[in-house]
Prior knowledge:
The chain is an alpha/beta fold. Helices cover about 40% and strands about 25% of the residues.
Amino acid sequence: MNTRKIAWVIDSSAFVNTMLKEHPDVYIIPLNIHFGQQQFIDGVDLTSEQLYERIRNGTESAKTSQPSAGEFVELYTKLSKEYESIIAIHVSNGLSGTMSSSLNGAQIAKVHVECVDSLSLSAGITGLVERGFHLEGQGLSFEEIASSLRIEATKFRNYILIGNLTQLYKGGRLSSAQFYLGSLLKIKPIIQINNKGELQELDKVRSHKKAIQYLIQKVIASFQSEGVELVYIMHANAIEQAKDLKDAIQLELPSLQVSIGEISSSLAVHAGEETLAVLWYVK
């Protein structure tokens, strides 16, 4: 049997655009979503519409869990028979235990897998995979590609505007007082995944309009000082707001490519509905 060169493994926290969805060498391991005793598989048996309906109307807060090492054992065992090598790119190890499950699965299966910590999530993973495709096309070995992607991961920039405080409150990440004051004063938290792959709070902006301008100015500043070719706008059930943000960015930066996508259900659980994020890699 002829083996193919590189299998690419990602988890469902990634933004799975058309290219990744249709690529024959990309494999997706789903995270799990929990409402009380009920468990759902991200992207398989719970649609984003169903998720937001549950978040809005349910009394139990949603939670997520990483895939098991056993799921990775099964996948890596299968792929090792079909491919020369495997590269896995996962949600930041500072945000999820998915990377650990992947490493454990590879060890149990006795399969050499180059696991790359994206230090990000969503379109951050997407950008690394697309960069990996380019390097593969240049003929680099899978070890060289993985090494290059680990460097590329440090060039990630992101600003995340939390759209609805309710989910943060339900999930225990806001106290009752913080939730009440934030809602009353229309405070919009801006958070970021830092260069260690961990979430940190950056700012609190009064009003949605000012928060949108904040995002636009961050994109402009990076474009002018660091060099940016592509920006991803990710949204949680807020497509019209995402389109308006894209128009506003391209009005200021006509040469900049801007792509819109929806964040996965496993991320929407934490960020909440109407969240908007701008994400990109610098040169």
